[in-house]
Design a protein that fits this description.
The chain has 293 residues and is of the alpha/beta class. It has two domains: 83 residues, 3-Layer(aba) Sandwich (Rossmann fold); 134 residues, NAD(P)-binding Rossmann-like Domain (Rossmann fold, 3-Layer(aba) Sandwich), CATH 3.40.50. Helix content is 39%, strand content 17%. Strands 1-11-8-7-5-6 form a six-stranded parallel β-sheet. Strand 2, helix 2 and strand 3 form a beta-alpha-beta unit. Bound molecules: guanine (GUN).
Length: 293
């Protein structure tokens, strides 16, 4: 069994990005700049946004954090997005989700210029992803593909079973792995809450991507020997072993499943760090105008 070390891989990629930033600056280019928009003070969102700012510092990007009160009217936030779209110094930006109930997330995402949508959430980017055009890929699927590449995991002709059909993980990773390219060329099955025979399907899988947010859902009896398992789950569960009183749990019963795997991601230290680094890679692509020129 090989442990897929997302933390170490993300660390290497960060060094590669930092090198590239140094070259850009040395040749008179502009420092890549990511802006993050945070509405309200949701504890998890605060943590995520702080990580994003710290990640930018580590690779030499400029970053701006724009904070707004929970009560900001929808139109005011939409106007802010328009300003960011026009700001020549900002290469890419993200609006941290979830947003307060009175603001339409769809409207806000649609207001973002696809060329600055480094989250890859805009319908133009998700549509381009589906048909295999260059686009900003959402961070978690992009991170999974990068891990598959860097660990030389064969995907061609393999049966990949994805558990979860979210717009930001399940659907895009299904599209990426079914694409006619490498990594890709998988036969993909997408399972979800209404799937009746999940175990029958996971037992046929060469690769399983668990992304439905149910701690410990995938157990040893559901997988066959030699399977590749990618755990995307990060559910907060109560814990008396941590200072904060909670810990993050994956969708895979790691202890039971790992001995049967050829490759498996741990949680933490698997997909999470790769998701964070993918946002940096997208920001670098935005700064270099690699996707939309
Ligand atoms: N909330 C949780 N994850 C994400 C993310 O990747 N991007 C944004 N914008 N909000 C999130």
């Amino acid at each position: 069994m090989i442990l897929i070390d997302g933390k170490e891989t993300a660390g290497k990629i960060k060094l590669e990005i930092a090198e590239e930033v140094k070259k850009i600056i040395a040749t008179g280019g502009k420092r890549p700049h990511l802006a993050t928009v945070l509405v309200g003070s949701d504890a998890a969102s605060e943590t995520y946004v702080n990580y994003k700012v710290k990640d930018c510092e580590q690779v030499g990007f400029a970053s701006s954090m724009l904070r707004f009160d929970e009560s900001i009217p929808e139109q005011e936030l939409l106007d802010k997005v328009s300003e960011l779209n026009l700001d020549q110094d900002i290469d890419g930006f993200i609006v941290q989700l979830p947003l307060p109930a009175h603001i339409s997330e769809t409207k806000v995402i649609e207001a973002i210029d696809p060329a600055k949508d480094v989250d890859g959430f805009h319908p133009v980017n998700t549509g381009r992803l589906l048909i295999g055009m260059p686009c900003f890929e959402s961070a978690t699927p992009a991170g999974i593909i990068e891990l598959i590449k860097r660990y030389n995991i064969e995907t061609s002709g393999k049966h990949c079973v994805i558990i979860g059909r979210s717009n930001i993980v399940g659907k895009p990773i299904a599209a990426l792995l079914a694409q006619k390219r490498d990594p890709g060329n998988c036969t993909v099955t997408v399972c979800h809450s209404r799937t009746r025979n999940i175990k029958e399907l996971t037992l046929q899988a060469d690769i399983i991507i668990a992304a439905m947010g149910q701690p410990g859902f995938l157990t040893a009896d559901m997988v066959r020997e030699g399977v590749v398992v990618i755990d995307v789950g990060t559910t907060r569960v109560k814990s008396d072993q941590t200072k904060s009183g909670f810990k993050l749990k994956g969708d895979v019963d790691f202890e039971g499943v790992a001995p049967k795997c050829s490759y498996i991601t741990p949680m933490p230290g698997g997909v999470g760090p790769m998701t964070r680094v993918s946002l940096l890679l997208n920001t670098l692509k935005a700064a270099k105008k690699e996707i939309y020129s």
